[in-house]
Amino acid sequence: MSSHRPPRHPLALAGVAALASIPLFLVAAPSASSAPPSDSQGYLDSTARCTAPDVMVVFGSTESSRVAICRDTDGDYEYRGVRVRDGARLVVPASRTSDGGFTATNDGIDYLVTSTDLVVSVGEKVIRDEPMVDFHEAESSGTSTESPSTSSEPTPTTPLPPPLPAEVGGDEGN
């Protein structure tokens, strides 16, 4: 004799399937949230932020990255980036391109920052092309290469500390 199973109603099964899909929608919805908190120096609690005496030139975020371009008192540029999902950071010298973007290179990988994209490439091969979802540019009249500080300390070469709280993976839905 066969075992007894309760009858399965097609609508009941459809309801369970519909309910199962709702949490997926709710989890995916926060990825379209507003930009991370920022001020005139970049993103708060982030590597993608300029610190005095450096000044912010541009900063922006993509779905998976945050970047800032800072200018020091000598007029040199610095790329400050962080990958949101795992807090991986990169702080390297940068340069301005002829079309107003900025480039930085680390271990043969090029990072191009424009008002519309962050492009990561090796030579001619594009690894990632991430559209900017938030972008800020310093006002050219309000930005100065001069600093009231008289400090002439060299840039430290020590490794970066662990990720800041806002950079720990998982909080951005990625």
Brief overview, please?
The protein is mostly beta strands and 174 residues long.
Strands, helices and their partners?
Blueprint: H1 10-28, E1 38-39, E2 42-43, E3 55-61, E4 65-71, E5 77-83, E6 89-96, E7 102-106, E8 109-113, E9 117-122, E10 125-131, E11 134-137
Antiparallel strand pairs: 1-2, 3-4, 3-11, 4-5, 5-6, 6-7, 7-8, 8-9, 9-10
Structure write-up:
By secondary structure, the protein is mainly β. It has one helix and eleven strands. The strands form two sheets. Strands 10-9-8-7-6-5-4-3-11 form a nine-stranded antiparallel sheet, with no helix packed on it. The protein has a two-stranded antiparallel sheet with strand order 1-2. Mean pLDDT is 74; it is low at 9-32 and 141-174.
Q: How would a textbook summarize the main sheet?
A: 9 strands, antiparallel
**Total beta strands:** 11
Low-confidence stretches: 9-32, 141-174
Cα distance spanning the termini: 52 Å
Strand content: 25-35%
Search tags:
single chain, mainly beta, nine-stranded antiparallel sheet, 1 helix, 11 strands, 11% helix
